[in-house]
């Protein structure tokens, strides 16, 4: 049975969550939406709603207060989904990693797919990370469809 | 009618794409492809379905069905009043689909959606009454056979109708229940809990609705002469551009200002026009 893969990479919707960021990365994320960088030309929308989002952009480290929030946003996103950690803090905890209230990077609570380094991460590198995430988003979808196909073949 | 059911979603989706392109250009950006609305819906159909209430499925399908039904009735030449009642029924299904989820965001969103209905519903009914007073019929088929355009007798109704289109198209300043743009303070308001395929249905229903409403705009212009059809097309383009311009130049308002301003415009433009028509007749 041949299955047709749809191109879903043309419509990646984002949700951006600020963990315990210093706002440096957040400003750069929002800068991507401005006329200079204009990520909407890739069909990207900053939805702000986890239930409509495909890509989760997280900035800042994880502390005990936002841990449950990050988990909940991740759980509310329908599959396929991709997580992008933006900036040094979201990647590893950054300069705050030894603080008593910081758990570390975003990968201490949810699986992170793409790491975007920088302090603050430049809009160019954020866009680069998001474009990688878009590719992975399509791949995750295709893997899911192939798995479905294989399962139905095994059952047959 | 069949033509409407088949072609309307493509037209509507394309309109959405053009809308986003023009909006981007107005803001000095390049903007997405004009086919973006279709890419979005294709993507939504492939997403996992997350929901808290199975009932939402049936309610959203009913919403889509009644929106298509509304347009189909209109293009089949059935009484315009019936179309508007079917449209309100569709809206009720949409609000019910939002409220079954018990999310605080959709709850406030649906409250605001009801406020919006309260704001635009008088003008919609006035428009139907206006067409009857001006042409002696509620049916689109009879109205387009008049020798002169209805707009000559009902300019006030036209102004009022274009005003409420901003609410129906979810344009700023009146996009208080949910917004096409990502600056909604209520997450996504009334559509927050609709995921995947279900949200795709909402998008498709919106396309149908837009085509139906723009057809009403055309009805103001079209008469028995051939040239009026071209004029109607030009007016539709102009009205749609005006809505995009309003969207890009106005900040969102609170519900009470929306209700007051819409009712004042409905009453002054629509009401006065109705009064004058009564006197002429």
Structure description:
The complex is a heterodimer of chains A (156) and B (281). The longest helix of chain A has 33 residues. A five-stranded parallel β-sheet of chain A has the order 2-1-3-5-7. Chain A has a two-stranded antiparallel sheet with strand order 4-6. Chain A is 36% helix and 17% strand. The mean pLDDT of chain A is 88. Chain A has one domain: Rossmann fold (3-Layer(aba) Sandwich), CATH 3.40.50. Chain A is α/β, with parallel strands linked by helices and 156 residues long. In chain A, β1, α1 and β2 form a beta-alpha-beta unit. Chain B contains ten helices and no strands. Chain B is globular. The longest helix of chain B has 32 residues. Chain B starts with a helix and ends with a helix. With 281 residues, chain B is an all-alpha fold. Chain B has one domain. The interface between A and B is medium-sized, with 25 and 32 residues.
Task: Pick out its properties.
heterodimer; A: about 160 residues; alpha/beta; Rossmann fold; 5-stranded parallel β-sheet; 7 strands; about 35% helix; about 15% strand; globular; B: about 280 residues; mainly alpha
Oligomeric nature of the chains? heterodimer
- Gross morphology of chain B: globular
**N- and C-termini, Cα separation of chain A:** 11 Å
Q: What's the number of helices of chain A?
A: 4
Overall structural domain count of chain B: 1
Q: Give the C-level CATH assignment of chain A.
A: Alpha Beta
Count of beta strands of chain A? 7
How much helical structure, as a percent, in the residues of chain A? Answer: 25-40%
Q: Quick one: which chains have the greatest interface? A: A-B, 25 and 32 residues
Q: Which segments of chain A are poorly predicted (pLDDT under 50) over 5 or more consecutive residues?
A: none
CATH domain topology of chain A: Rossmann fold
| Number of helical elements of chain B | 10
Largest sheet geometry of chain A = 5 strands, parallel
Quick check: average pLDDT of chain A? 88
Q: Give the total of beta strands of chain B.
A: 0
Mean pLDDT of chain B: 87
Work out the helicity level of chain B. over 70%
Count of the domains of chain A: 1
